[in-house]
Give the backbone structure.
Amino acid sequence: MTIQNNDRLVYEAMPTRPLVTWPEGRTVAVWHAPNVEHYDYIAPGGGTPQGRTRYPDPQHYMHRDNGNRTAFWRMLRAVDRFEIPSTVSLSLSVLEEMPEVRDAMAERGWEIMSHGISNLRPLYDMPYDDEDRFYELSQQLAETYYGGRRIKGMLGPKVSGTDNTSDLMVKHGMTYHADWIHDEQPRPLRTEGDGRLVSIPYSFMLNDVPLLLAKHYPGSYFVDMAKAQIDRMLRDADEDGQGRVACIATHPFVSGQPYMQRYLEEIFAYLRSDDRIWVATAADITDHYLENSYDEQLAHANGISAAREARA
Amino acid sequence: MTLIQHPRDATVFAPGLPRAYDTHRAPWQLPAGKKLAVSVLLHAPSYQDVPPAGSFKPIAMQGGVGRDTAEPKHGQLARLSQWDFGLTVGIWRLLGIAQKAGVPVAVALDSFGVRTMPGLADLVAERAQEIVVRGSAANIILDEAMTADEERAYIAEARSAVEAATGRTASGWFSPERANSARTAGLLREAGFDWFGDWPVDERPVALDGAASGLTAVPFGLETEDMFALYTRSLAFPDYERLLDETVEQLIADADVVGGRFLGLSWFGWVLGQACFADVAERTLTKLAANPQVLLVTPGDVAALHR
């Protein structure tokens, strides 16, 4: 029986949880997730990047492709300057078809988080066997083109999934799923069998597409939001001892625009200005959580649930 | 004899809502010479990914990726998990802020949340001064197409679940998405509720009449609501904070002209409870608590005060 999405969540309110801590006494883990995407010129099923014209939509195909031709390289200069470990939310076709981009990421040790093959090929309604093959191909691409490093997590292409997604991710060796934005800590997700999968807090708050492209705030507001978010988390963590996670989600075709460079650098400088911040990759955070917190958190939440059932 | 002949299928005014206008009604007097009563209602709704067959769902609602308000395709978790953030983290951050500021709060819970989130109801019951019933789930709403009995059953089920889970009696109601049928106010009164918060219709509580007689509309403003301001209108958070400050300042000034004012702050765990927005709540409540002209009071108490 497939687990429903609501039932994947292992609920426990933040105030009653055992403490989650990060290495070396740091209190807020921050991961940078550049979304390096490819959008098919003509997508299977006829999807378009912006829903603006029928396909092809050269305006937005080119706008996004320019993200990989120029903006990505500008972003790299900011990443390098502040030595920001990055977890690339990657359209995996880039591994095979854009070796220049792939190699630049590999040279910097970026971690690959799957973001599908193309960002116009969502997983919605995909039959089980097809989705199974999709993960198999994803791991083959990483093994073949990225130094044999298998992929540990995914942000669904176009933020999509099916009822089988979590279970198939576990089957193919993945440990974190970024589609869940329901917490400030990783949380266990229920899966069939004994596989361990956690949600890793991705963000549609500190994310250039919702902020700048969809809602039209200026670049400076991205900085304001990032600072407000992380400042508050640092203060809360000082008070309750709970380690927290923030994600800075960028896209080269948005944050790599020339006028955005100063704001991106301001965010990165801020991340490097406070020793309480652990700038890490999604897998660093997940691995630490799995090693140190997962079992305790799951047991504690299950205890609350059992006590409630006994009372009823 | 009126000049306008309304079409037969038009209901021109909301049932149960008396028409009364500032400067044409007796001023509302607040106790101890206060000028502005403020109630904080914290929403802790749950989002049911697959509502039961026959449920009525909103045509559009906030939350998720970007600014798309249509129902997401099944398999997209953004809206579900963003609303859930309110229950895992956001509501507790806002409750902590209110407690530190010494501001009493009401928390609105729904039946799906209290049934499926172990510990949620117990912890809210420990920390909230008032419990409010908020229907079945964030995305299962009341609708004019329901029969009266279906609507009665919806109201009864939600109330029963929330009261049983919290061990508290609820005298107030807030409808998901503020959605009503034309019967809702009357049915809430029939069910024994004293107040409801759906209607952003006034700057003071409104005693309803007709089938809803005995029910008080406690008006939680739309423009001052975090979800409307920060999502629907896309205000930047510093602008939202200024809007709140300026609203308070003007309402206090207006009280000398038109009588005591009410401001209902409708805040969502998944919105203002986000770390990036929470300082707005903290600074606003701290300022309100320090203002001698402001009476901070739960909505249930403000409804009682008005009666």
Chain A is about 45% helix and 10% strand. Chain A touches chain B through 56 residues (CB under 8 Å).
